[in-house]
Amino acid sequence: MRAARAAFAEAGGGITLEEIAQRAGVGLATLYRHFPSKDRLVREVVEELMREEIEPAITRALAEQDPLRGMSVMLETVLTLASGQPGILATARDAGALTADVAPRFIQPLTQLMRNAQAAGQVRADLEPDDLKRMLVMLLSTLRPAEGPDEGWRRSLVLLLDALRPDGATPLPPATPPARC
Question: What are the residue ranges spanned by the domains of the chain?
Answer without folding.
Answer: 39-163
